[in-house]
Design brief:
This protein has two domains: 216 residues, 3-Layer(aba) Sandwich (Rossmann fold); 109 residues, OmpA-like domain (60s Ribosomal Protein L30, Chain: A, 2-Layer Sandwich), CATH 3.30.1330.60. Helix content is 35%, strand content 17%. The strands form three sheets. The protein has a six-stranded mixed β-sheet with strand order 4-3-2-5-6-7, with helices on both faces. A four-stranded mixed β-sheet has the order 9-12-10-11. 38% of the residues are buried.
Amino acid sequence: MKLFVRSLLTFFAFLFLFGCAAKQMNRLPSFEAKQFDKNMYVSKVDNFLILLDASSSMGNNLVQGKKFDIAKALVHRMNETIPEMGQTAGLRSFGHSSKVSKNASELFYGMEKYSSCNLEADFDKIFEPGGKASLAEAFSGAATDLKELSGDMTAVILVTDGLHQPGDVLASVKELKALHGSSICFYPVLVGYAPTGEALLKKIAAIGECGSYSTADECGFYSTADELLTSAGMANFVEKVFRGKKVIAKVVPIKKDSDKDGVYDDEDQCPGTPLGAAVNSIGCWALDNVLFDFDKDVIKTEAYPLLNNVAGILEKNPGMRVELQGHCDNVGTPKYNMDLSMRRSRAIKKYLVGKGILKTRMTTKGFGFTNPIALNGTVAGRALNRRVEIHPIKP
């Protein structure tokens, strides 16, 4: 009977303590992460590393709950708020329980392209505080984490109570600063309140203040967990640390088509074609393979309307002189195709003379298969290469 009563009392005591702990955690302010429009802003931080203190002093209780639980809630809320904009990210814990890791300091996430989901999953592996604090060792590990990274700006975010720190912490921070210069900034966040911890963290923040940022873009500053646990406080922190200037949309120049042939000037290899001329994909006034049968220089009757259009354009531009350039595919010898291309250009000239165009306004030239506009390895490509181009001659 005594054993039963003792067990029952133990059970109720557990419920009481659990209820108190839950009640304490419920004292954290409600939170809703601000969503930043990634299309409107860029990240001024290329890399960031979160250092989480999980040492034994973080297991002590505050009004809101254990300092460790408050620190974890803060990192969770930070992770919900930081926009994913291609940054490289990492999360390192130090001073944690040996159940978490045998190493005094360990990189649990990263360094890799930031994913809030992946960081959250790895962050949950840090489940228990209890080891010795070693912030100096954490900064030494951070030096390795950040060693091979590129980019103009790196943010180191430290979440700690700042207590019981062995070694020369500031020397480790200064060493990291010396390695990266103005491209690294420190953002310590104090959990709980202790004058010695506050003093240490403010000194760490000050080490980064010689960065290249202007006053509006602070390089390193001190914060408290109480400030950042609120929706507005976290949004303000993330905005100051991560959000860059508004992206100014580039003005895309309007492409010009000066000769109004349907091909933009930057792609037009034959600028200045007369209005109404039929051009090919590169903007040249071209008469395609409907003019001749394969290996022939006799104009096909179905090509007459096309040539009549050419004659009409030349009549409307009486001062224009043109060069008729014949081209072939690569079937046959170079010598044969050079002659065939010349014969075809002369046939076009003869037809246009018959339509009243002065022969002195036209010259002829053959290129054989030296200037293809398509691949000769296909039937369609060879057909495009069998053509006559009409090039206005500049006075």
